[in-house]
Structures are given as structure tokens and as C-alpha cells.
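Budget justification, computational time. The allocation requested in the original proposal was used primarily to generate C-alpha cells for proteins on the priority list. As evidence of use, we reproduce two of the resulting records. The first is shown immediately below.
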Amino acid sequence: MKIRSIAVFCGSNSGRDSLFMSQTTRLGHLLAEKGITLIYGGGKKGLMGAIADAVIDAGGKARGIIPRVLTEWEQEHKELTELVVVPDMHTRKKMMYEWSDAAVILPGGFGTMDELFEMLTWNQLKIHDKKIFILNISGFYDALIAYLRKAESEGFLYDPLDERVVVCEDADELVARL
């Protein structure tokens, strides 16, 4: 399946490691170069804003979906190809899943984990079959990946983890594996 659009879930903060920002920007440039539309949370701050800015700066398309309650918190991005303001987080996530062919998880906090685990759960339940990529910048997700492998080895997953999740160390590897 050709990937035409990709949902990116990430932090509305930038994190402390400068590689988070540089790899996020690199990914945005690569997505634009490949003609892949960015589907993301619509914010202007942190890694969210960085990936949208990078896609736009490289001439790509960026579609944001932001819940009304977060328009001030995450500072909605006004320069997007399209920005949709929705009533709540559930609507945001559902639209992001529907509009994308795959998902990428960048460093982030609770919201990013919520989005990752909902995607994984829906994938396991066959609600969708979209590939999920984890961009493990600077080993940010090492502990999470160890947990997922443990859940797999202990028999808590229905399918092999590698059928659901692709772990990449940098943006170039991720785009090469799309």
C-alpha cells in the first residue's frame, strides 16, 4: 500500500534533547519531499509545531486537527494547508486515524502515549490495519519497547509485535521503511 498521508503523534513541548527537534524537522522535510501529507494535532508549539513548520517550509501539505479546548493551550497553527477545529480529543484522534495511511510516534508525553496505545488497540482489534512507526530518537522509547516485548513474550499480544510496530532510530530510516 502506498502511503499518501501519515499521522504524526508527538509532544507539544520540544523536550530537552536537541536531537528530538532536529529529527522531527528532518522527518517533516522528508515527508514533504516524498509528497506525503502530514496529519497531526494542529498545534504550533513543541515537536508538533516543528514538524508542521518543516513540512510547510519544504513545500508539503500539513493538515491539522485540534480540539477547541486546545486552541489556546497548543496554540493552533495558522499557516497549515488545512486546520479543522473539533469538539473533543476523541473526534481529533478518530479523524487523524481516518485521514492517514500510517502513524508515526515521536517523543511526547501522556497525550502521545494515549494516541499510541489507542492506535495499537484498534490495530489489534482489527478496527484498522495501519502500520505504526515509533521513532526512537536517542533511545527515548527504549523502556516502552522493552515493555511491549515483555507483553509479547508473556502472551498478552494476539499477534507478533513486529506485525504492528516498526521501530526506527532516525527519520531517514523511517522514511526508507514506509
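The second record produced under the same allocation is shown here.
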Amino acid sequence: MPASSSNDPADAPSGFGTRAVHAGQQPDPSTGAVMTPIYQSSTYAQAAPGEHQGYEYSRVSNPTRTALEGNLASLEGAKHGIAFSSGVAGIDAIVKSLRPGDHIVATDDLYGGTYRLLEEVFEPLNIHTSFVDMSDLDAVDDALTDATQLLWVETPTNPLMRVVDIEALSELGHAYDVTVAVDNTFATPYLQQPLAHGADLVLHSATKYLGGHSDLILGAVCTNSDEWAEKLRFQIKSTGAAPGPMDCFLTLRGTKTLHLRMEQHCDSARRLAQMLNAHEKVGLVRYPGLPSHPGHALAQKQMSDYGGMISFELADDDMDQALAILDAVEIFTLAESLGGVESLIEHPASMTHASIPAEERRKIGLTDSLIRLSVGVETFDDLRDDLDRALLQV
């Protein structure tokens, strides 16, 4: 069998930073290399048929990937970490474990790629999804049916930064024998650990904060369930959604500084949110760290800090003004994605969430003037001045 990427939290060091640097890894026994090697191999020699050193074929497992999976499992306090070729591939594998006729209840404010996957790929395959405001537990309860097999949660949500109660949703889902999955990409395991609040599965687009440098595409699912781990590994083996060893290596490099980067992301985002909240050109600021945010108290309860993502609307709610701001910034880069060391700015209605129909966007409150920021690790004063200058030009 391949070297295990499962993790026993009881045996791990308690410090997050220590686990970020060391979990799942040890110096290479053949050379003493401190960094996990990039095992750039598709196949592995066998002494005899079925007699090998834990690896047969890299679609199934790879030593660099094994190290990463152990690292991510430790950070999420999970027994298993399963790495995928992308975050969407991880979502795809979870949903492919369902069957035609099954039903999903998902948050109505979620990543546009998740919406596209559920509506355009799985709906035609007779796996149906109901989209609900998960801050309303009664609405979630009403949406659950005898066919419901999966509760798909984001918190904070993308892009409206809603905060929903993982523990309450997990209790509700489990009362109906429904699997609860949480997309933890925005928060990262440094700020929030959904399994500790009762969730069954945690999904990451490791492309974002875990990698942290905008130079890789990778996804991961963490779980304490042996059954789910087996299902997901079967999906990778059967459908080929495996990450390459270089991307695994780069993600391992990224997780080593996750705790340090998140501290800066959070500090600058908090201060920028306060600045925007007081700006005459800005209307509603959506950031869980603001006391005015409706989910602030809940975020205090289930998160250790409020993250590096902000979205805000203009006071005039003018799309042309929003697009002019995107054109006027100099340090913020106009680009999709998030979670890198560089600050990014984007317009969800025409970029990351364009796959959601306009009427659905309006229904959930995603306005045409909404701007989303991924706050990087640059000097705060430069970021503040860049945004202020752009706002004053419109």
C-alpha cells in the first residue's frame, strides 16, 4: 500500500505553525534533503508483480502528493487529506459520489464555478440542487427532502461575505442523515476548522491561500470519514483528477508560511474595511470583521480572525463607476482568483460570477456595483492610498 496520507491529530504537535512547516514531511532518507523532493515519475519499479514500495502509478499516488495530503490533514485536524487537480475537481468528486435522483442543498451565495458545475453538469444528470440562504436555518430545513444527500456550505460566502453557522447546519444535516461539506477556501484552516464544528468534509481550492503565490492549480478535501476518503480516492483513480508533483511541491511550500501570510492578510483587510466603511463614495461594506456585519458575532465564535477578503458596493450603485475604479487602481491587479501575496480586485457580476444568471445575482443581493478585493501582503499604506485615489477619481 502507498505511504499513508491519513493523520492522527492526537499525535501531531499542537502549534499550527509547527504543523504547517513539518506535518506530513521528514528529511529525505536517501539524501537528507530537508524539502520533500518532487517525485517527477509516472511509474515505480516493482520487485515482483504486486511487490512494491508503496507506489505503483502516479495517478493513484505519488510521494510528493502523500506528503502534501498529510500536511493538509494535520492543518484541518483531519484523519485524511485527499489532493485533487483543482478545487472544482474536488467538488466534482464529491458530487459524483451521489446518484441520479439525489438532491443537494447549497448556499445561494457561492463561487460561480460551483454553481456552474451543479447547474450545468449535474442537473442534466438528474442530481438536483436547491439554492438557499443558509443564514436562515428554517429555509434550509424547508429545503431538505428525503432525497437530500449533501449540504454544500460556504462561509464566509463568495462574494457577499455572509457568515453561516457550521455547527447548527451540521446538526441539522445530520438529523436528516445528510453529509455536510464546507468550502473553507476563504477562511483557510488557520482561521476556521469546519470538522471541529461538526462538518463531514472540508473543501479547499489550494490554488488560493494554501498555495498563496498565484502559481499553481490544486484542490483538496479533508475528512475524518474512512468511507468518504475511500470514495474520493476511487474517483481520482478512476477519473484522473490527480494533481501533478510540482503543484503538490509548490503547495507544500505555500503551507509553510500560511500562518504568517494570513496574519498580514487579516490585518490589512481589517484596516481597509474600516477605511472603506467611512468613505463617502462607498455604500455597503461586506467584511465579517466590522461590528456592523450581520455575521460578526458568529464569525467571532467560529473563526479566529476575519480573513483577507472584502466586498463593497458604491454609494451610487453605478456599474460604470465600479468598472472605472477597477481601471484606476495601480497596485491592486484586475484579475480573477484570490489568496495570493499580491492584492487583486475584480467585478463579480462580469467576472467570477458571470455564470450565475443576472436575475439570480440580483435575488441574492449581488449588485452590479459590487467590487471584490483579495487583500495581499503589500505595505498597508500603499494599498489604502491606491484605493482612496481610485475612489476619488469617480
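A brief technical remark on that second record: The first strand starts at residue 80 and ends at 84.
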